Amino acid sequence: MKLIEIKESELKSITLFLIDKKIILHPIISPDGIPDFSGYEGREFIVILDRNILIGIIRLVNNGELKDTHSLKVISCFLAWSEFNNIALNSGLALTEYSHHHGSNIESSKENNIFLHIYKQYSPRDWFDLAMGKTKTIPKIELEKRKDFEFFLEDDHFKMHYLEMLKLSQLYFSDEHEIVKKFELFHKWVFDNILICKYTTYFAVMLLGGKSKTFRKNEIDYESINRICNNVAWDLTYLSFWSTQYYYEKDAKQVYLFATMDKELRDLFFLTHKESLEIYKEVFGEQKGQTIINSVSEIYVKRNKPEINPIVLDKMIQEEQINLNETLNRKTLSNNVHDDHVG
Which of 58, 137, 257, 294 could form a disulfide with 65 if both were Cys (CB 3.0 to 4.6 A apart)? Predict the structure, then answer.
């Protein structure tokens, strides 16, 4: 095998770039987006890729280039860094999302064939040259064999997060309740119906506190709002599924990190792992914030967990979709009446 020379200055340059962009996350190794592997010597590291990272990789090798110079820099630095440090990349969840988007395994299988062949066709030097600006293109990937894969599977994590988004969107667009009541209703609904996820708990702060761009500048119609709920549910699924991996890793051989270029998703991660409820007071004021904290505290207690299975979740999804549609219809009607009065 031909030895590839990597200069220390090159490795330092791409590492500092990735640290600056804060795309590699882990509650202990990288709680602020700045990886520190101290105390984890001798472990195997795997990075779970989110959809936006995988898209960049696939486009780069399919086209031999990326027109967006920033994305090219991020993707090439990330590939160079992971290869040099012998860190494996896992695209499984991103491909599962893609299969659900298309409703089949066809497109996700195509991408997986490409992803699996990348390490055979390209060397670390290819990524370092792109990262350092020595080259702007690479040869397009060439596949000899293709296999079929199964990614289009039932996913309870996703279904629960989709349900949460359906409920949160109802509360977001509802004019019937003030903010404290909205949180009380949401937390009670979660407690009664599904598993509790800390990422969603903090996302509710971002959304209902106006710290998220999720529903801004979008038409208030069911199809567009439902599509957004679906997309955000996948974002939450990445974080919650990943948490089932890192939660048990104290004595595990493999350690899972997560990589994303999505700023809001990173902000949610950073906010959640501050492990502080003071954000409620910062966003909603001392009195309202404390009231909301009290309602949050009530859901983090021992309880008889609700029955979770695909049949129950599917039935709940149908019910909450109807509720969302009715909420949006009332919102649209209210806006039309207001516009008529103003006119």
Answer: 137
